[in-house]
Amino acid sequence: MGLFDKLAAWLGLKKEVNVLCLGLDNSGKTTIINRLKPSNAQVQDIVPTIGFSIEKFKTSSLSFTVFDMSGQGRYRNLWEHYYKEGQAIIFVIDSADKLRMVVAKEELDTLLNHPDIKHRRIPILFFANKMDMRDALTSVKVSQLLCLENIKDKPWHICATNALTGDGLQEGVDWLQGPLRIHFNLLLSYISSALANLLLFVSLIPNIFMYSTVSPFSSLHRGPFHCRVKRKQQQLLRYCS
Amino acid sequence: MVRKRPLPLLTRKYSDVSSVDVDVATGRQFSLWLRGSSFSSVARLRAAFGFICRLYAFKMIKKFDKKDEESGSGSNPFQHLEKSAVLQEARIFNETPINPRRCLHILTKIIYLLNQGEHFGTTEATEAFFAMTRLFQSNDQTLRRMCYLTIKEMANISEDVIIVTSSLTKDMTGKEDVYRGPAIRALCRITDTTMLQAIERYMKQAIVDKVPSVSSSALVSSLHMVKMSYDVVKRWVNEAQEAASSDNIMVQYHALGLLYHLRKNDRLAVTKMLNKFTKSGLKSPFAYCMLIRIASKLLDETEGGHDSPLFDFIESCLRNKNEMVVYEAASAIVHMPNCTARELAPAVSVLQLFCSSPKAALRYAAVRTLNKVAMKHPSAVTACNLDLENLITDSNRSIATLAITTLLKTGSESSVDRLMKQISSFVSEISDEFKVVVVQAISALCQKYPRKHSVMMNFLSNMLRDDGGFEYKRAIVDCIISIIEENPESKETGLAHLCEFIEDCEHTVLATKILHLLGKEGPRTPQPSKYIRFIFNRVVLESEAVRAAAVSALAKFGAQNDDLLPSVLVLLQRCMMDSDDEVRDRATFYMNVLQQKQKALNAAYIFNGLSVSIPGLEKSLHQYTLEPSEKPFDMKTVPLATAPITEQKTEIAPVATSKLPEKLAPSRQDIYQEQLAAIPEFQGLGPLFKSSEPVQLTEAETEYVVRCIKHTFAGHMVFQFDCTNTLNDQLLQKVLVQMEPSEAYEVVQYVPAPSLPYSQPGSCYTLIRLPDDDPTAVSCTFSCTMKYLVRDCDPNTGEPDDDGYDDEYVLEDLEVTVADHIQKVLKPNFGAAWDEVGDEFEKEETFALASVRTLDEAVGNIISFLGMQPCERSDKVPENKNSHVLFLAGVFRGGHDVLVRARLALADGVTMQVTVRSGDENVVDVILASVG
Ligand SMILES: Nc1nc2c(ncn2[C@@H]2O[C@H](COP(=O)(O)OP(=O)(O)OP(=O)(O)O)[C@@H](O)[C@H]2O)c(=O)[nH]1
Ligand SMILES: [Mg+2]
C-alpha cells in the first residue's frame, strides 16, 4: 500500500468507480460485464437488457459499479440520465457488424458532444468485441471507422475482445485503472495539500493571535520578529487562495 | 393545504371474488382512508393497518415514534412536508456512496406525498424516478424494497419506467428470496402487453416456484395482467393449475383466483373447474370461500335448482372445520334468491350459533348477515330473535346497532317504541356508517307500519339535528322524503323538519334537493305561504347553486298560488340583482313567464321543464352553431331524456349547471345515439327517439345467443342484434339477421357484422322504414333468421379453415308494439300539463278488463303495454281501495306530447275509462286503437 492509499483509507475514502457501459444492442455489453464478475456470480443465459442493470466487480485496486445500459434504439435516449455520475465509459462495438458501424459512430458522437461529457477528462475504453467472428474487423479498422483519433481531450484506448472466452478484457481493464488512478491520485494529492495548509494555518493561529494588533501587549513587542510573522501570514494567505 | 387528485375506488376489490391483492391497493387505500371517504370501516381499517405496518417495517420510523410518545400527541411526522423541498432532497440519490438511511427517509416522504394525492408533474416525477433508479447500487434490503414500492407508486406518473425492467428481472430471478416477490409485483406494474412477452418465461417459472411468497406474487400479478393482456396470461394456465395443488394456503387461494378469472367468461369451464376442486378438496380455507362464491354466482346465473350439485357443495361447507368457510357458506345460502325454509334452516342455525360466539368478529358477521336478509326471510330471522335480544347490550356498539335494527325490521309494531328508545340511548356513540344502517331500518319500518310514522319522524328530525357526515344526512333526508311520499298526512311535519334542516345545512346537494321538493310539494299544501320565508332565506344566505335552486322553487309557488304571485314577483325582482349569472338568468326568466299569467306557459316552463337529454341538447346546439341557418333552432330535433334520468337530473340540475357540467354522465340512450351515428348507413335518420330494453331472441343455453335492441327514429327503426358465438370451434362471418315483416313495414338495409369469433360479442343491424301513409300501423311482428358464413376452426389456437359454408339459424319472432313509439316523460305536475295540452283532440272510451282481478295488476299491465311514464306516484294503488286514477305521460314519435288518464274501478273484474289528450289527433287514435 502506497502512502496515498493509506491516506485514503485513513480518510474513509473507498476506491469505488462508477462506469457506464454503452454501445449498440447485441454488441455484447452484458456478456462482457458478466465475464468480468467473479465466477460464482456469473449467470448462464444472457438476454437483451431492457433499461439497465447494475453490476459490480473488483480488481486488485479498484471496485467497479457498472451501469449496463440497454443498447436498443428506443432506450438509447435514456443513457444520458446516467452521464453525470459516470467516472469512466466502456463503449462496446460489435466488430463483425459492419453495417451498423455508422450507427455506432453516430451514437458515440452524440455521447461525446453531450454537455455532461464534453468538458470532462473522462476515460473511455473501447472494446472491439466479437473478434472471434470470421468477418470481424481489426481494432485498428474499427478505430478508423469511428474516427477515434479525433478524441483529443480524453484518455482513450481500444482493444479487441472476445467476450465468450474473455480474451482481451483484462488488457482493457488494466488500462482503465491507469487513468482512473491518476484521476484518483490527483484528487488525493489535492486533498492532502489542502490538509497540509490547514495544519499549517492551525499551527500558526496562536502566533497570529499573540502578535496581532489587538493584543494589549502588542506595542511592547514590535520589532523584526513581528515583521517576520506578518510576512508569513501574508504568504500563508496567498498560498491558501 | 394538500391538493387532492381523484383516485379510483379500489375498495371494491374486497367485496368480490377477486379480493386477492392487498399489496398494490394498500397505498391508495390509505390515502382514501385519510380522506375520510365512505368505505366500510373494516376495509378502511385494514387498509390503514397495512400501510402503517409497512411504514413500521422501516426502522427510521422508530425515531419519530419515540418523539410521539414523549410529546404525548399522535402527531404525524410527515404532516408538513413540502413537495418541492422533498424533491430537492431527492438529489442525494445521485451521490456516491449511497447513504441508505437518508435515502429511505426521503423515499418514504415521496410515497407519503403521492398517497396524499399530491400532484407530481411528469418532468419532476421522471427526474425523481431516474434518481431513484441509482439506488439499485445499494444492497441494503430495506432500501431496495422501498424502491419497489416507489416504482409501483410512480409507474403511472413518471415516463420511461421500463428503465428498471432488467434490474427487476434480475432481482426476481436472483438468490435473495426477500427481493423476488416484491420485484415481480413491481415488474408487472411497469410492464405493458408488448413487454410482457419478454418476461413471460420468468413469470411461468415464478408461478411454480417453491417459495410461497414468490409464487403468490406471480399469481396475483398475473391476475392484474389478465385485464390488460388476457391472451398472454391464458397461456399460463398449466402453471396456475400446478400452483393450485400447492400445500401453501395462500398460494392455493391465489392460484384458484387466477384460474377462475381466466375462465369466468366460459361457464362450462368454470363448472368443470368447480367439479374438480369440490371433488378433490382443498387445503386452503380462503380457496374454499372463493369456491363458495363462485358456486353461488354460477347458481344465480344459471338459475340452477337447489337440487344441483353446486348447492350440495355449498351446504356441505356448513360442516367444514374452519369457521370462515362455515360462515361463507351460510351467508351464501341466505343470500340466494328463492330459498325454501327447509334449505334455509341449517344456514340460519349456523348464524344463530355464531351470535353467541365469544369472538366478536363472528358475532358481528352473523348479525350483519341476518340484518341484510331480515326483509327477505323475516321468519327465519325471527327464529334468532332471542339471540339478537341478547346482543342489544353487546359491548361492541356495531354489533348492538345491527342487532337492534334487525329486530326493528322483523319485530312487531308493539316492540318498535321500546327498540327506538334503546337505540336513542347510544346513537350518538356509533359511527356514521352504523347510523346509516339505523336510518335504513327506520325507512323499512315506515313502509311496514305507516301508522308509526310520527314516532319515526320525530326520531329522524332529532338525528338530523345531530352532527354527522354527508352520507348520513343524505340517508335521513331520503328517508324523510320517502315517508312524505308514502303518507300524505305526514307531509307537513316532514316539510317543516326539512325546512329547519336547510336553515343550517352545509351540503349543497342536500339543500338543492330539499328546495326542489319544497317547490314541488309546498304550493299544494294548505298553507303555502309559510315556506316562502325558508326559501327566500336561502337566496340571501347561501352559495350560488343553492340560490339558483331557491329561485326555481319560488317561481313554482308563484305559478301555482295566485294570491302569492305578487309577493313572489317582488322577491324575484330582488333576485335579478344577484351577483351570479345563473341565479340572475333564472330569476329574469321566471319573472317574465309569470308576468304573462298564462296557465299553459306556467305548465310548460315552470312546473314541467325540459324533458330533453342534456348531453343531447348540448350536441344539437353545438351542431347548430357550426352550420348557421335562417331557421330557428328546433327543440324537437333534440333527443329526449329517458324518464328516470329526467327525475334525477332535475334534482342535481342546480349543482350541475353552475359548477360541474361534466357530472352529467351520458345516459344509455346517448351512448346508443353516438354508436349509431358512427355507422354510415344510418346517417340522416335524425335524432334517436327511443331505445328499447334488450329482448332475448334465443334461449339462454344455445349455440348462438342473440338479443335485440329496438331503436326508434322519426320515420325509421333500427334493430340492433347483439350476437355471441358460444362455439369455440367456429368463426362466423358476414352475420346478419333477415327479417320478414307481417305488416307494411319495409326492410331498407342490412348492416352485417363482419366477423364473430368465439365468445366475442358483435352487432349487426337491420334498418326498416315505418309506413308513412298509415300512421296508425304501430305494431308489427317480424320473423327473424340469422344468416352467416361458418368457418370451422381449431378450438385451441382459434385458427380458422380456409373455406367455409353458408348456414342459418332461426330466431324467435320480434314484436314491435305501441310502446316502441312512445318515450316516457315525467311530468312533475300532471294537472298543469293536462291543461296545457288542452282538450282539442281529447277522446274517451271505456273498456272492461275481464281477466284482471286487482287494481294493482291492471295498473301494471297498462303501464307496461303503453310504455308511458306514471306521474304523481299514481302507479301505487293505495290499499283497500276499489277505484283508482292513473296518470300517464309520454311523447309520441314525431314529438307530440301524449297524456293518458285512466280511471279504474274494481267490480267483478276491472272497468277502465281511458281519456287521451295530445296535440295530434292521429296519436290519440293510435293509443285508443291499441288499447282496445
Ligand atoms: N461470437 C461472439 N458472440 C458474442 C460475443 N459477445 C457477445 N456475443 C453474443 O452476442 C449476443 C448479444 O450479447 P449481449 O451481451 O446480450 O449484448 P448487449 O450489448 O448486452 O445487448 P443489449 O442488452 O440489447 O444492449 C449474445 O448472444 C452473446 O452470446 C463475442 O465476443 N463473440
Ligand atoms: Mg445487455
From TrEMBL, chain A:
It is a peripheral membrane protein. It is found in: Cell projection, Cilium membrane; Cytoplasm, Cytoskeleton, Cilium axoneme; Cytoplasm, Cytoskeleton, Cilium basal body. Mg(2+) binds at residues 30, 49. The keyword Membrane applies. GTP binds at residues 23-30, 71, 129-132. InterPro entries: Arl6, P-loop_NTPase, Small_GTP-bd, Small_GTPase_ARF, Small_GTPase_ARF/SAR. Signal peptide: none annotated. Its main location: membrane. GO terms for molecular function: GTP binding; GTPase activity; metal ion binding. One of its GO terms (biological process) is cell projection organization. Keywords: Cell membrane, Cell projection, Cilium biogenesis/degradation, Cytoplasm, Cytoskeleton, GTP-binding, Lipoprotein, Magnesium, Membrane, Metal-binding, Myristate, Nucleotide-binding. One of its GO terms (cellular component) is axoneme. It holds the Pfam family Arf. Belongs to the small GTPase superfamily. Arf family. This is ADP-ribosylation factor-like protein 6. It comes from Oreochromis niloticus.
Automatic annotation (TrEMBL), chain B:
GO terms for molecular function: structural molecule activity. It is a peripheral membrane protein. Residues 671-817 form the Coatomer gamma subunit appendage Ig-like subdomain domain. Residues 819-931 form the Coatomer subunit gamma C-terminal domain. GO terms for biological process: endoplasmic reticulum to Golgi vesicle-mediated transport; intra-Golgi vesicle-mediated transport; intracellular protein transport; organelle transport along microtubule; protein secretion. One of its GO terms (cellular component) is endoplasmic reticulum. It is found in: Cytoplasm; Golgi apparatus membrane; Cytoplasmic vesicle, COPI-coated vesicle membrane. The keyword Protein transport applies. Keywords: Cytoplasm, Cytoplasmic vesicle, ER-Golgi transport, Golgi apparatus, Membrane, Protein transport, Repeat, Transport. It comes from the Eukaryota. Its main location: cytoplasm. Transmembrane segments: none annotated. Pfam families: Adaptin_N, Coatomer_g_Cpla, COP-gamma_platf. Residues 83-597 form the Clathrin/coatomer adaptor adaptin-like N-terminal domain. Oligomeric complex. The coatomer is a cytosolic protein complex that binds to dilysine motifs and reversibly associates with Golgi non-clathrin-coated vesicles, which further mediate biosynthetic protein transport from the ER, via the Golgi up to the trans Golgi network. Coatomer complex is required for budding from Golgi membranes, and is essential for the retrograde Golgi-to-ER transport of dilysine-tagged proteins. Belongs to the COPG family. This is Coatomer subunit gamma. The lineage of its organism: Eukaryota, Metazoa, Chordata, Craniata, Vertebrata. The gene is COPG2.
